[in-house]
Amino acid sequence: MKTIEILGTGCAKCNKLQEMSEQAAKDLGVEYTLKKVTDVKAIMGYGVMMTPALVVDGEVKVAGKVPSLDEVKKLMQD
Question: Is the pTM higher than 0.85?
Fold first, then answer.
């Protein structure tokens, strides 16, 4: 099971990244848990300075942009 975390304050880009991540996991047939991290100190604890950010199994995969659905799928498989 993968742990997916969306780091961000709840902006439109953060919500889009959450949608893309959920769709990618479903398309890949991956079981997952999803957590939204909105606390700025917690986000900075990951070393992320720009949101939104995608964290998969504790590893920051992308920050500061919303990747395409195909990119998210690739990041989840890495």
Answer: yes
